[in-house]
Design a protein that fits this description.
It contains six helices and eight strands. By secondary structure, the chain is α/β, with parallel strands linked by helices. The strands form two sheets. It has a four-stranded mixed beta sheet with strand order 1-2-3-4, with helices on one face.
Length: 278
């Protein structure tokens, strides 16, 4: 999100008699793992008195690490933040929570005042029924709380640091590959997006022909890797880009050597397939 453009968009909507009420910033986008500039976005939201929500379901793990928590600098200025434990922290689904800065908002939004269900008693504040959309939904955040009790902040920090280190390792290997692998972006998080580039197109400028080959071969390589069953990674695309490998490094048991195996498998199948395409 470009904060200056957000400011213009809100001002334009107000000039048309509309009332913008919510900005949804992202900490860890799905494909690239990118982080919005929360401080700058919070400035805009405070200026226009707009609720700031942060979707940190994927990238919120950075908050547990001193090395990378700067990626969510300004998150304390949001009115709400969404987190999940099912991704980087490896907890079973469902495990999600929304943190609200203003006490009482969830009850105001969700309470139906159903007196046949909810009664006045001293433990009422522990009853989640009036705070959630589903009334009887189990407390998903309990899994995250238990995990924190078992591993502690230090354990979460070590896990997050390890995942970031593996992402940096893969990105550095791509940069040092002599054009064999080409990064689709400079990763901020655990998403390392890159292409396998056939020999013919290595270190060549972008072209329609080159894009078409990269787009096709990425899916073919991934399918062969999937069928072989030795390693598994995924692929994705963004508008205007050929399909690329989208490798996620959140496995706490994976090492740099494991990352090497993934790249070796991509190269092996890429070399075999590119020979058939030439």
């Amino acid at each position: 999100m470009i904060p200056a453009e957000l400011d213009k968009a809100i001002a334009h909507a107000i000039s048309e008699g509309k009332k913008p009420f919510l900005v949804n910033a992202t900490s860890g986008t799905t494909v690239y793992g990118a982080y919005d500039d929360l401080e700058a976005i919070a400035d805009v939201c405070e200026k226009h008195k707009v609720w700031l929500h942060i979707d940190a379901c994927w990238g919120g793990h950075c908050l547990w690490t001193n090395k990378y928590k700067h990626l969510m600098k300004g998150s304390h200025r949001a009115q709400s933040v969404a987190l999940t434990g099912t991704k980087c922290f490896g907890l079973p689904q469902q495990c999600a929570l929304v943190v609200i800065s203003e006490k009482g908002v969830l009850r105001t939004c969700n309470s139906s005042n159903a007196d046949y269900l909810f009664h006045e008693y001293e433990e009422k504040n522990y009853d989640m029924g009036e705070l959630t959309l589903n009334c009887g939904r189990r407390v998903d955040s309990f899994k995250l709380w238990v995990s924190l009790k078992v591993y502690g902040d230090k354990g979460f920090e070590e896990r997050a640091d390890h995942a970031f280190d593996n992402a940096k390792y893969v990105a550095d290997k791509c940069r040092a590959s002599g054009g064999l692998f080409e990064l689709a972006h400079n990763p901020q998080s655990l998403n390392v997006c890159f292409w396998y580039v056939p020999q013919k197109y290595r270190n060549q400028p972008r072209s329609t022909e080159r894009d078409a080959v990269l787009d096709k071969i990425t899916g073919l390589i991934r399918r062969q890797i999937q069928l072989e069953g030795k390693v598994l990674t995924n692929f994705a695309d963004v508008a205007g880009q050929p399909h690329f490998f989208r490798h996620i490094t959140c496995n706490p048991g994976a090492s740099g050597e494991d990352m090497d195996v993934v790249l070796e498998q991509i190269q092996k199948h890429g070399d075999l397939i590119s020979a058939t395409l030439s």
